[in-house]
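Bug report

Summary: structure tokens for Molecular chaperone differ between web form and batch submission.
Environment: batch mode, default settings.
Steps: 1) Submit the sequence below via batch. 2) Compare with the web form result.

Sequence submitted:
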Amino acid sequence: MRILLLFICFMTCTFTMFTHATGVQVGRTRIIYDANTREVALPLTNKDKELPWLIQSWIDTGDEKTRGPFIITPPLFRLDPQKEQNLRITWSGQALPTDRESLFYMNIRTIPAMAKDDDNKNVLRLIYKTRLKLFWRPKGLHNNPVDTCKSLRFSRRASQLVITNDGDYYSVFDNLKLGSTSIKDAEIVAPKATAQFTVPKTASGKEVTWRCITDYGNPTNEFNSILTQE
């Protein structure tokens, strides 16, 4: 199996593009690591009917450089066509906050093998990277993520929408609107923290409506609140 680890452009002008729309499928959209569990399994399935794929995975703290306190087994392996294998994620034991969730990012790089028939062709190979949120959830947190989302507080400071999260969990928005205007850059608010997002000039009114994304990747019911002015 030959793997090309970078985009390779040969001297000629003709290329064959492989999109591999049926490549490696990741079994979740987010990972919840409960401190009560020994490890978390993330299933990967190779949907390709012919080619194996190379799988490389790691976890970072959010800057895409610093590795997180987790061990992945196996970190690098070959996944044969039409096969499934679990990545097993284990906490390394490094101290983390015990009164709130911590957020990390799971990275999965998938690289298709080159078919024998392509040996003499000019080929552009693509490397795919999937990035998932991993929430470390310690014992003894209060309420639950949906209650935290429902209890968010909203105020306006000049052109900024200020969101306060008093809860122990991260709130990740499915959508957020001020009046009828979407606040598109509003993504996430950390526990016991505030976040600020720019209000579009077209936004008016004081009613805020929002949904968050649950542990299962689906949206919550819609919540609403009246905006306060700072």
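Above is the batch result. After comparison, the two runs are identical; trailing whitespace caused the diff. Residues 99 and 140 are 8 Å apart (CA to CA). Residues 145-150 form the longest helix (6 residues).
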